[in-house]
């Protein structure tokens, strides 16, 4: 069987996944959930989209099924397929079908990576029908109460190569989740890595400087996730500059002059 069928996780954490809201996103999401509206989370990689969905699923008491999208993802990977066994063929639900039957929140991460013909299977779930037609079995599965479709989308990434069709985009309530304000981001780095407030602030000020290079040849800017990784390394005894070279500079660029600029910014900050 195709490996991608297994490529999803069902989670129902006991402890609250910690999330620091930036605005009214928690209320907005709750209202969408209560009214069965599908949600699109827009924002750069590592800005907290996944954590937000995990938090909301916990808050709403729903199981969360996460599906990382990629360009090989076929409709059958979402819906399911017949498996050939020694005693005959059996139908196996895919992760989307399972979420629809169980009333789970189904999170398609980086949906723009999926092929158009795969994304189209979502359409009947995002309007008044709230059903998933399964051609192979002839079944029309009605979404159980609590089912909600959530997709994430990074508008900057590969925008020239891939984009979502307007007919798909207009089926979602879109929420913009950008990097948090510096004060919020420092709190997040501090909470997630366990570093002292002063170091968290230093890491955020480094990130702000690097993010200004976005228009000067830096394709991807550092995410909150990278700052947390740098902070975590310092707590393992790695000197802060080394931690930033490894966790922030190297992941962002291979280009020698850019690497040298980024290292200078690290040395100027710490
Ligand atoms: P994305 O899904 O947007 O790529 P993630 O949700 O994986 O990003 O965020 C990366 C990490 O940053 C998370 O694991 C979490 O530690 C931290 N993070 C980012 N934003 C927040 C936030 N608002 N509240 C709590 N943690 C956050």
Automatic annotation (TrEMBL):
Record's keyword terms, sorted: ATP-binding, Nucleotide-binding
ATPase dynein-related AAA domain: residues covered: 39-172
Gene3D superfamilies, per database record: P-loop containing nucleotide triphosphate hydrolases
Family: Belongs to the CbbQ/NirQ/NorQ/GpvN family.
Domain annotation CbbQ/NirQ/NorQ C-terminal: ranges: 185-267
Designated name of the protein: Nitric oxide reductase NorQ protein
Organism field: Stutzerimonas xanthomarina
Residues passing through the membrane, by range: none
Pfam family, one: CbbQ_C
Superkingdom per UniProt: Bacteria
